[in-house]
Design a protein that fits this description.
218 residues; mainly alpha; 3 domains; 7 helices
Length: 218
Amino acid sequence: MSQCTTSPEPNTTDTGREADGRCADGIPFARQVAALRTAMVNAVTPQDIQAITARLVQEARDGDKAATKILFQHAIGKPQPAVNPDRLDIEEMRTYLEASFPPEVILQMQQGVPLRLLLTLWPLMLAANERRMAEFVQDRLAKMDEKDRRRAERARNKAEHRREEPAAPSTDGSDGATDASGAPNPPSTDGDYGQEMIAAMFDWLCGQRGESDDDPRT
């Protein structure tokens, strides 16, 4: 297991941790604590435990109440509640029920994904999903730009065609002039697609849901 060391990167602290509390090499705080506990356990031998226990027993024999309490708690355990004779049958049946598993639980365990494998694959799945969504949105935006470009081109061609046609006699003093400024919106230059952008993301989410429903593995 790798250790959390101090990183020279500017986004880490002197303790080798990032701003979110994780180690610079990506190990969460809980795993670092587990590594320290593992090192402590590895440093203690069975002979050490026997020697400490023997000393604790001797201190309890000499009348040390604290040593006696610690010894009893670890050797015998905390005192359990008194047994209620009226609940003996109930407790016995409850013990049988707790010792059995329904078939659906076993089936669910067999079909489940191991947690260690899921933790390894999930970041990769998220990254792939982000790329797919980005590609989908970029494709939709490109199609929107192309659609707006074709509309603008048709509007210009229509305006040019009107200018080439002979003007009809004016009835309102405008000499038959036409306004060619009614072209549709040109392609976006600031990335603000408003409702079209939201619609693209909604279509992508619906597509993902449809793929999940069609997946025979689900």
